[in-house]
Specification:
The structure is a homodimer. Chain A is an alpha/beta fold. The first copy, chain A, folds into 2 domains: about 260 residues, Alpha-Beta Barrel (TIM Barrel), CATH 3.20.20; about 100 residues, no CATH class. Chain A has 15 helices and 16 strands. In chain A, strands 4-14-13-12-11-10 form a 6-stranded parallel sheet. A 3-stranded antiparallel sheet of chain A has the order 1-2-3. In chain A, helix 9 links the parallel strand 12 and strand 13. In chain A, helix 6 packs across helix 7 and helix 7 runs parallel beside helix 8. The longest helix of chain A has 27 residues. The radius of gyration of chain A is 22 Å and the shape is globular. Chains A and B meet through helix 3, helix 13 and helix 14 of A and helix 3, helix 13 and helix 14 of B.
Chain lengths: ~400, ~400
């Protein structure tokens, strides 16, 4: 007889986990715990496609209130390459971002950016949009790449069902994604504070969405995304899918609406139970001269701003609004100066993160409905009245 | 009889002034006092062409050690317009830079950038490079524009004599610039802490340079620039002109070598008595992937940096060198990411300003010659040996 205490079975590493702090109707206030710290949800993830949130230093990204950044597997596998990032110590160190990272699976970009692809049971063969070279990507390689990047949250490889799609197309596509989800899970190696999220597909067909949820929850993931939306179906259809699908997902795990969206999309989706978002809109709009404000979106190229010495939004305390006039930002955008992109990107991310902070506080305070009504009313006001152009030139 | 004390004649406002703190042979250590603070000389002025040092927030420009920025009259008169900048509170407020500013006269850019110009005794008529519109610029309007911009240091309108030029061409051009200098001085309205600098011309003809100095010092300015160099004559010819011309200038006033230059140009010109410099090189090079270092210039696009986890310069404490590897910056430049331009511009300005700080300390310590020898030896070393590329990708 062995007198030593029986050896305990090795503890399963605790993956990324979710803590639900408060609810207001369907809206949820939570904390996503990862290997690189916690994320307050509902959270917006700026997109750092090529290992950089465009035109922002990482310290500035953090200063906007951002706690998690999304990076793209497709772009990084092509340049600089996943093995190179791994040899350089992983994506956090490479891009000097020590907070949580989420990587997508590459599936969406392969379908939308790459050329001449063949799709089969094992994945996709595609041509790089950079140099035309051939690459393969499937569930195992996608998860392997995300592991090489050392991401906190990896996503299952899936097919983003196009819109419109017939019911049969959507079903076939969804079932393929579910088989890939199983293969992604099998390839994923659990590590402390890391997680793999499954992605619900099924187009706008609610019963397909429900079957997809069942398939994924049977496999089991650290979180669940709703994919295949914001692809042209319109906000009403998107909200309907979210409203019907979110309640089917496990309450104790985070829910991520991929590729969404405009400010009012975020407010509406949070009210329908979503915890995580990503979208290129605030950063891309910064590069095209758009500024998001409480009173709607401004086009800073517009001549009405040329002589206006007021900030974009006098209630905003981002560096662009504290230090610079509309006239100056208008000038920078007209002159195609990089500083214009830097300031507008910062402002837009600040706006998005302030909106998320407002949503979180509203849920905590049980006044989500009032917050949403106030948001909508203020957006409807439109921009402050124009100044007469003071310039004599 | 009037028992009241006799009214004093109104005090002449004290313009921008120069304080000579130390000398080492011809090299000078000084302070240029302006309405927006003092500038430690020898000083390097980054170029903020269109009211922005490209890809840099003003706070970051200051963090490099920059105390004065140059802005371009030609660009600003065309966009957004001098009257508009004045209506918006002047250039400092417009670009959120509360330290000293120097503006050029527009003369150089009119000759190099604008189209279809006619040159006469009163100035130049030219076509805007932006929209082809016709504009006139001469000594009076140039000084007026610089006053509207509310600059600390204005420059006389001059013709930058092309290289090569015959003796006769150089003389005719220089004499025109001297007449314009007189008209610029007449139009300039003295204000406290503001100054107008004259510009020595004369090409590579030393006697013409001497005559130009005599003409300018007879008029009298708050400082003197040597113009018409770094236009193709080569470093040896440039140094000869500087060496022969600088000692003719008043010792108690600042000397500015316009449009110069490479790091070794700065060291050589400081040894020959120059106090102020401006050049687009550190900022423009940042946009083309070049990094200045103690051991010479690196091309960050080069594949040798692709797997290199070391900073650009491990002795540099700029944000680019403290937070990022050569591999990452290489990746950003290859991917044409704005952050690559931001980091390299910051690094290059930091390098230039650290070089100027080193020169100032060397002059104070009476070891300028050793500093120059050490600088040259280190530049000659070339880059640190390449790492084997650790990537398996």
């Amino acid at each position: 007889m062995n007198h030593e205490p029986q050896a305990l079975a090795p503890l399963q590493p605790v993956g990324a986990s979710f803590e639900l702090l408060a609810r207001d109707d369907q809206a949820r206030r939570g904390l996503l715990h990862t290997a690189h710290g916690a994320v307050n949800t509902p959270a917006f993830m700026p997109v750092g496609t090529a290992a950089t949130v465009k035109a922002m230093l990482p310290g500035s990204v953090a200063a906007t209130g951002t706690e998690i950044v999304l990076a793209n597997t497709y772009h990084l596998m092509l340049r600089p390459g996943a093995e190179r990032v791994a040899a350089l110590g992983g994506l956090h160190r490479f891009m000097n971002w020590d907070r949580p990272l989420l990587t997508d699976s590459g599936g969406f970009q392969v379908m939308s950016l790459a050329g001449l692809r063949t799709l089969g049971e094992d994945g996709v063969v595609f041509k790089s949009h950079l140099d035309g070279s051939l690459h393969a990507l499937g569930p195992e390689r996608s998860v392997e790449i995300q592991e090489l990047l050392d991401t906190d949250i990896a996503m299952c490889f899936d097919e983003c069902t196009p819109f419109p799609a017939t019911r049969e197309q959507a079903e076939t596509s969804m079932l393929l994604s579910m088989r890939w989800a199983e293969r992604s899970r099998a390839r994923f190696r659990p590590r402390p504070g890391r997680g793999l999220f499954g992605i619900v597909q099924g187009g706008v067909y609610l019963d397909l969405r429900a079957r997809s949820v069942m398939a994924l929850t049977k496999i089991g993931f650290e979180g669940y995304a709703i994919g295949g939306l914001a692809v042209g179906e319109g906000q009403a259809a998107m909200f309907q899918v979210v409203e019907q699908t979110a309640p089917l997902l496990p309450a104790e795990q985070p829910r991520y609406l991929m590729g969404v969206g405009k400010p009012d999309d975020l407010v509406g989706a949070v009210m329908r139970g979503i915890d995580l978002f990503d979208c290129v809109l605030p950063t891309r709009s910064g590069r095209t001269g758009q500024a998001f404000t409480r009173r709607g979106t401004l086009n800073m190229r517009n001549a009405r701003h040329g002589g206006d010495d007021r900030p974009i939004d006098d209630g905003c305390d981002c560096p662009a609004c504290r230090g610079y006039s509309r006239a100056y930002i208008h000038h920078l955008i007209r002159a195609q100066e990089i500083l214009g992109v830097m300031l507008l990107t910062w402002h837009n991310l600040h706006y998005y993160q302030a909106l998320m902070a407002g949503l979180r506080a509203a849920i905590e305070g049980g006044r989500m409905a009032e917050f949403a009504a106030g948001f909508e009313a203020e957006q409807g006001l439109g921009d402050i009245p124009s100044l007469a152009d003071r310039s004599t030139g």
